Amino acid sequence: MCSQEVDLSNFDLGLVQVEDETQRRIDQIKTCSTEEDLETLKETCGDWIAGCGVPTVYTARLQDLPQVHGRVVAHFIYHRVASMIQQFIAGMNACGRFWELVKSYWRQFVPVFTNTGEKLTRHKFLSLFDKTRSEDGSNRWEMEESTLYLFEDWLLGIEEGVVDFKFEDLLIFLTGADCLPPLGFPNRCTIDFYDQEPGVKRLPFASTCSLSLSLPRGMDSETECGDHGHAPYGRKGFWGCNLVGFGLYRRPRIPVALVVGEY
């Protein structure tokens, strides 16, 4: 799409959807290693390979097979859907010939158009946030410290696999995005705090518009999490906030394949 030569000899077709029979035939091309294998390939798959745009298969030699394999793969990942790709390019160029810019600076756009996002870790997740804190040393500040300790302990449980939860799930709950945007979010995520009302216990909640996570002040792992063994890692998750609990408060999931810092 960007007029670059690509080596497809080792391309993993598992990244795209092909029928089992198609996968078997492509594997047969790739594993062909003897003259007998080559003759069998031409007899059983020659017409099919020619139909994929490689009519030279009938005169191909063993050393030609990597090129044959690459051209067959190119047929399935590009030429077969070329009309849709051309529509996509035309649409991009309708916006100030944007695709021509992409072609000229394709290396810079690779993270935007491909899934190269890094896996979230506890430190990476926490680095997304600014914290809205009360006055240093105040009673509220102390209560917020207690909450943050428990929250970060829970994140450690996710990282260690003790909690049946993923950082990506938490990112969806917070932002609606299932991965970090290549150019980042439009603004920093924030952690805010709120006081619990007498007789009412509100679970943590998030706003996908403001990218904020609101946590209750003064949470204590022993008294609030209940008897679940190691308190922060209990079955109820973070203060009873499991996937179902999160679902009550988050907006519908927005699959994000291409986010460039603005929704």
Automatic annotation (TrEMBL):
One term of GO molecular function: ubiquitin-protein transferase activity
Domain HECT: 154-216
Family matches, as SUPFAM superfamilies: Hect, E3 ligase catalytic domain (SSF56204)
InterPro entries in UniProt: HECT_dom (IPR000569), Hect_E3_ubiquitin_ligase (IPR035983)
List of catalytic residues: C209 (glycyl thioester intermediate)
Keywords on record: Transferase, Ubl conjugation pathway
Gene3D superfamilies recorded: Hect, E3 ligase catalytic domain (3.30.2410.10)
Domain of life: Eukaryota
Keyword Transferase applies: yes
Protein name: G2/M phase-specific E3 ubiquitin-protein ligase
Source species taxonomy: Eukaryota, Metazoa, Chordata, Craniata, Vertebrata
Name of the gene this protein is made from: G2E3_31
